[in-house]
Design goal:
The protein is an alpha/beta fold. Helix content is 39%, strand content 14%. The chain starts with a strand and ends with a helix.
């Protein structure tokens, strides 16, 4: 009989592709949604990449409430805890993101360990392994980000604190359940739905000509399909138990992303900006747009990041960032 995997937050971008990859590999999948009304959206999204079958089921559970999580874990072999609350990342929203992320993760882990699932794989963020700004240290899995660093937005801070809380909980209460975390960079790739786009909004805005100039910002990019594959590898590979894994492919500056879109998509990318935005202009904008402030220390900075661990232990082999960007844009243009 196929094993059953619980994927939290089935309406999400990463969760959707985890569901697709699991179904394609023959697993049974149960995914959590906050209300039964969300089930149709998940089914329609999954159907974009996988012929729908009876191996997908649903559980009603919310990260902010205890109800539903024990029932969701009945008969579950593995858990991919992908869900995390989203917001507008303003300072006033910090605690409204942090508390649900941290407490929601603990709700998932309590239920999973009570049920005795084999392993939980949690989606964290590469920001959780970032060395201090004023160093040239390499970002790898041995690095633990200081949550007191004020350059982080509310979303990234919520991921950092949730992962720390998860490891602390599992150290004392894990029992027979194993635990692994995946720390992705900027996640792009084809969308199954235009809901909950996350970082894909960057590509969507570029296609609409926003911003009018390109700031000196760059990203370590991972394709959502490669990220889903890595979650499944981490779920089953014996060496992955008790480990953290950074997930990223190539680094690209915003200007390189824009150039790739214009060269590969032609007229479809006619609105993609070409001009550079001077640093001083970006900093002036950040004075009036709070969401931009966290990016000002990143102007012109390329973080040294290593994914050697995921490549060596799990066979992680991400596709090129250019291919990922183009696939992302093409899917946005047709959805």
């Amino acid at each position: 009989m196929p094993e059953t995997v619980l994927v939290t937050g089935g309406t999400g971008f990463v969760a959707g592709w985890c569901i697709v990859e699991l179904l394609q590999r023959g697993y049974r999948v149960r995914t959590t949604v906050r209300s039964s009304a969300k089930q149709t959206a998940v089914r329609l999204a999954v159907a974009q990449a996988h012929e729908f079958d009876d191996k997908l089921s649903f559980a009603i559970a919310d990260l902010t409430r205890d109800e539903g999580w024990d029932a969701a874990m009945v008969g579950i072999d593995y858990v991919l805890h992908v869900a995390s609350p989203l917001g507008n990342n303003t300072p006033r929203q910090a605690e409204t993101l942090i508390a649900p992320a941290r407490e929601g993760t603990l709700r998932v882990l309590r239920a999973a360990t009570r049920a005795g699932v084999k392993r939980v794989v949690m989606t964290s963020a590469a920001a959780a392994a970032r060395p201090p700004h004023r160093t040239d240290d390499v970002s790898d899995e041995a690095v633990w980000t200081d949550p007191a660093d004020r350059t982080f937005d509310a979303y990234r801070l919520s991921k950092i604190l949730a992962e720390r809380a998860a490891w602390d909980f599992m150290a004392s209460h894990g029992g027979t359940t194993e635990f692994t975390t995946i720390l992705p960079g900027a996640v792009f790739g084809p969308v199954l739905s235009k809901d909950n786009l996350g970082s894909v909004q960057i590509i969507d805005r570029l296609l609409q000509g926003r911003p009018p100039g390109l700031p000196r910002l760059g990203f370590w990019i991972v394709d959502v399909r490669d990220l889903a594959d890595l979650h499944i590898r981490a779920m089953t590979a014996p060496p992955a138990a008790g480990q953290r894994f950074l997930a990223a492919g190539d680094f690209m500056w915003m200007q390189d992303v824009a150039q790739t879109l214009r060269s590969k998509l032609g007229a479809k990318a006619a609105q993609v900006p070409t001009r550079r935005m001077p640093d001083v202009v970006f900093k002036m904008m950040a004075l009036v747009i709070p969401q931009l402030r966290m990016f000002t220390p990143e102007l012109g900075r390329k973080l040294n990041l290593s994914t050697a661990k995921a490549r060596q232990l799990l066979g992680f082999a991400p596709r090129s960032a250019q291919a990922t960007i183009v696939a992302c844009a093409e899917s946005l243009l047709v959805n």
